[in-house]
Specification:
Layout: E1 2-6, E2 12-18, H1 31-44, H2 104-120, E3 124-127, H3 137-147, E4 153-157, H4 162-168, E5 174-178, H5 184-189, E6 192-196, H6 197-209
Parallel strand pairs: 1-3, 3-6, 4-5, 4-6
Antiparallel strand pairs: 1-2
Helix pairs in contact: 3-4
């Protein structure tokens, strides 16, 4: 599998990037991709929803009416879950565990599958370098329009680039990441992935060594 390498000014060069060996994985089913994708989302989920049981709702200590003789159903507290203003019977407690475990070998295979699909869908662009002399948003926007990149966009670098971060932070749905931070979900969600040649080479090496997540 080959993809042309783009020069720094956005024009097409004569060089090609080949990562066939690193993507030598057969995709018989997309079930593994789905499982890892959902697992990644579940593991980022935070327990923010908490409801009060009848024991935690303030008040309700007095019996609303006497037990017998009124023809009414018996109640011991106005904080009963079936009463308005009462507690919640089966609400979230904040202690739920939403994590889904996937073994490391399956994750690595799924990442290769996602990368393979991204190349097949022509979502990945490789550029020689992104050397911005000034942190100008206009220069990034010019490159995006020239390459016809569609949002959401992931820009992958091999090292911290302050000018690139400053130039891209005001552009909606554009995310700058190091190559080892790019996840399966990024590959699946992004419509365009722009990698520098050095970042692509490092990604290639990590896949060959089996160390990439």
């Amino acid at each position: 599998m080959k993809t042309p390498i783009i020069s720094a000014n956005g024009s097409r060069s004569d060089k090609y990037f080949n990562i066939d060996k690193e993507l030598n994985v057969e995709i018989k089913s997309h079930q593994l991709l789905k499982d890892v994708y959902i697992s990644n989302l579940a593991n980022l989920r935070r327990n923010l929803a908490i409801t009060k049981t009848r024991a935690k709702v303030r008040g309700g200590g007095k019996k609303p009416w006497r037990q017998k003789g009124l023809g009414r159903a018996r109640f011991g507290s106005t904080r009963n879950p079936i009463w308005r203003g009462g507690g919640v019977a089966f609400g979230p407690t904040g202690e739920e565990n939403y994590q889904k475990r996937i073994n490391k070998k399956a994750k690595k295979i799924a990442f290769r599958q996602a990368l393979n699909l991204a190349f097949d869908q022509n979502k990945i662009f490789i550029i020689t370098k992104l050397d911005l002399k000034e942190p100008k948003t206009k220069s990034i926007q010019k490159l995006i329009s020239k390459l016809n990149l569609r949002t959401p966009i992931i820009i992958g670098e091999d090292k911290f680039n302050s000018n690139l971060l400053l130039a891209s932070r005001n552009i909606p749905n554009l995310f700058v990441k190091l190559q080892n931070q790019i996840s399966l979900n990024d590959l699946m969600d992004a419509n365009s992935i722009l990698l520098t040649e050095s970042a692509a080479n490092k990604l290639k090496e990590s896949l060959a060594q089996g160390v990439h997540k």
